[in-house]
Write a structure and sequence with these properties.
Largest sheet: 5 strands, antiparallel
Number of strands: 20
Shape: globular
Order of helices and strands: EEHEEEEEHHEEEEHEHHEEHEEHEEEHE
Structural class: alpha+beta
Strand order of the largest sheet: 6-7-12-10-11
Number of domains: 3
Strand content: 25-35%
Radius of gyration: 20 Å
CATH architecture of the largest domain: 2-Layer Sandwich
Amino acid sequence: MNTDIERNASLAGLSTFRLPAKATELARLVDPAELPALLDTPLPVMLLGEGSNTLFTLDFNGRIVLNRLRGIDSEVLDRDRVLVTAAAGENWHDLVRWSLDRGLWGLENLALIPGSVGAAPMQNIGAYGVELAHCLDAVQVYDRSHGRIEWLPAADCGLDYRDSRFRSAEPERFVILAVRMELKLDGMPVLEYPSLLDELQQHGHAQPDDPRTIAAAVIRIRKRKLPDPDHIANAGSFFKNPVLPDEQAQTLIEHHPGLPHWPDRSGHTKLSAAWLIDQLGWRGKSVGDAAVHDKHALVLINRGNATGADVLELAGAVRDSVEENCGVRLEVEPLLVGESL
């Protein structure tokens, strides 16, 4: 059994924001059978995938377990539906490419989202009008309360906007082992975002009939707008787009003409946090080596030697500025481990 434990381990290379933090212990999970032994410690235990949505603002006085479970399987249900099951340690974009290679619809709008498969239900990942909730069938978990492995139907996962039962309601109870999705052989493109539709039209694909065409457009947009974490340390969008009741949103839109907004599946209105931050002149501003990206105001970056304190000070200043000027309190999207805002 592979339960080797590394002591006083650096976490800088295990999170895409690359903050200087350490863990008391570090282990790797490669077989679900190892999990009970890895959890059997008096120390706090945290499961970590690729660290693309996690910032360690302080040292973690506990055991980090890296989820390195692998494997992708599929089951054809009928002429149109295919169940795809992926282990939590698989890379998300690799799974998207796997599905596209087989002509499956459902994940194309979610191409190039960094991170592991296990993180997808944790935060109900979404982009360009599609969320994991749209295709999630079930999540396989280890229930620490009862010491057993079980499948939770999607309806029991508490999925919400960048949130879930696993992240908010019961963050300590479950370890995500695998994710099962229902994908389609004959799908319908979701093109409600103008930027995606414009990108497709510019390349002569106003009515795409292949999910690979949509994924390629999404990848082009993301590469233009978002910094590659392999080259610029970041955790993607740092704040969630605020979702407001229609009346409150309309008042804000009237005071800020040009504010991008979309209908939310909850029946409310979703507003562009990036636009609000940009209008207040935050692009390029910094605290220490933590900075607001100069091309996308929703992304905070580490210019090289940022500390957790730098990030928290900068993020707090941005959040307070938006609240004071726009009356909207932004919520942080990544998980902050250590000190929070």
